[in-house]
């Protein structure tokens, strides 16, 4: 009996939470679609909504796992013992109900994001802002990268790419990082490049997102580092009225564009912007590891990110994995850039060199 009460209590809590999520989500979606989200108050509501659906996702995963762990053994037990309905069985059924309910909400989560971002790609950055579901993304991801030695090795491969770039060898090496988020990896890349190649490096980091904290401007050890907030891809040419040797777009703008619904047009647009921003022979550097989207690990990453502010896997596809097929099948893109892979498993760097 007690099991049944606990389960029913959980269902009630779940229904209330889900209804709040749905109630909040609907106006936010409407405001997105109407284009009214430039209003600061609604931007906050939207970011809060992101955090809420992330929480719902976490609960849905727990409900799903519990239902699988409880229902399957119970079902088998009932099957083989032929026992009449018991309270354990009732709990299992109730948990199954929760799991089903949350599967539906989980779909809503994806639909909400997909619809919103396709209609308002200028608001993708909200997720990383103060109330957004990815507000801890940078801290968690960069800590994980450091822990497994990813940053150092990936940056070493990126420097190999920069060496291959046909710059005119007059200082400085100019790098634009247009999707820098907090700028952690851009800062490390600038410092390592300056010391490895014994050249001056000018790093111009920016992002569409307005982050509460990021690596601040500095000039030291052969590096000039500048960070600008609130720069959307469409404004890059206005923001940088000069040409660069390198565009460093690790898991950034190209990843988001190659992942969107109008990907062909979006990708062509950004690659043409990058083409104009680069000096002849300049390169676009992206992450290039190859593995499939690992759905369960992505969910577990979300779970940890919300509750423990950490992640434990590279679960999503790389920029190269999304973009390369599009590049290979598009003669226009092939006329603009040559694709070069520097293979090294998880640390693989791919660069696209301006022709
Ligand atoms: C996953 S983070 C990657 C940050 C950084 N490159 C790294 O690897 O640590 C992706 C970033 O791309 C930015 N971004 C996505 N689309 C963008 C766009 N159209 N214009 C500018 N920034 C964009 C997001 O705001 C976000 O901060």
How do the helices and strands line up, and which of them pair or pack?
Elements: H1 2-34, H2 40-81, H3 87-119, H4 137-147, H5 150-164, E1 173-177, H6 184-197, E2 201-207, E3 218-220, E4 223-229, H7 236-239, E5 244-248, H8 253-257, H9 263-277, E6 278-287, H10 295-308, H11 319-328, H12 331-336, E7 337-342, E8 349-354
Parallel strand pairs: 1-2, 1-5, 2-4, 5-6
Antiparallel strand pairs: 3-4, 6-8, 7-8
The structure holds S-adenosylmethionine.
S-adenosylmethionine is lined by residues 124-125, 128, 178-181, 185, 207-209, 232-233, 250-253, 256.
Task: Describe it.
Helices cover 57% and strands 14% of the residues. With 355 residues, it is an alpha/beta fold. It has an eight-stranded mixed beta sheet. The chain contains twelve helices and eight strands. It has two domains: 2-128; 137-354, Rossmann fold, CATH 3.40.50.150. Helix 2 (40-81) runs antiparallel to helix 3 (87-119) and helix 5 (150-164) packs across helix 6 (184-197). The longest helix has 42 residues, at 40-81. S-adenosylmethionine binds at residues 124-125, 128, 178-181, 185, 207-209, 232-233, 250-253, 256.
């Amino acid at each position: 009996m007690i099991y049944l009460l606990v389960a029913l209590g959980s269902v009630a809590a779940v229904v209330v939470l889900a209804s709040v999520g749905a109630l909040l989500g609907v106006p936010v979606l409407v405001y997105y679609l109407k284009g009214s989200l430039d209003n600061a108050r609604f931007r906050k509501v939207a970011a809060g909504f992101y955090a809420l659906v992330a929480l719902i996702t976490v609960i849905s995963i727990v409900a799903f796992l519990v239902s699988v762990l409880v229902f399957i053994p119970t079902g088998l037990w009932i099957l083989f013992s032929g026992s009449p309905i018991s309270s354990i069985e009732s709990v299992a059924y109730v948990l199954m109900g929760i799991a089903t309910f949350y599967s539906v909400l989980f779909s809503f989560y994806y639909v909400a994001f997909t619809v919103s971002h396709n209609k308002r790609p200028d608001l993708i950055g909200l997720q990383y802002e103060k109330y957004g579901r990815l507000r801890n993304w940078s801290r968690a991801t960069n800590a994980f990268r450091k822990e497994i030695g990813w940053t150092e090795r990936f940056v070493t491969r990126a420097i190999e790419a920069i060496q291959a770039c046909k710059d005119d060898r007059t200082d400085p090496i100019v790098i634009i990082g247009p999707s820098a988020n907090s700028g952690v990896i851009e800062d490390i890349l600038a410092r390592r490049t300056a010391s490895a190649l014994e050249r001056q490096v000018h790093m111009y980091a920016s992002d569409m997102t307005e982050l509460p904290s990021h690596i601040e401007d500095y000039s030291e050890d052969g590096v000039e580092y500048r960070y600008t907030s609130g720069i959307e891809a469409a404004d890059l040419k206005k923001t940088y009225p000069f040409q660069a040797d390198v565009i460093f777009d690790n898991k950034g703008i190209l990843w988001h564009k190659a992942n969107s619904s109008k990907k062909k047009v979006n990708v062509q647009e950004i690659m043409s912007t990058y083409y104009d921003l680069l000096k002849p022979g300049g390169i676009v550097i992206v992450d290039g590891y190859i593995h499939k989207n690992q759905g369960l690990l992505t969910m577990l990453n979300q779970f940890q990110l919300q509750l423990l502010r950490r992640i434990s896997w590279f679960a999503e596809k790389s920029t190269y994995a999304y973009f390369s097929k599009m590049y290979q099948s598009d003669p226009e893109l092939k006329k603009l850039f040559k694709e070069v892979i520097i293979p090294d498993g998880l640390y693989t760097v791919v660069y696209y060199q301006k022709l």
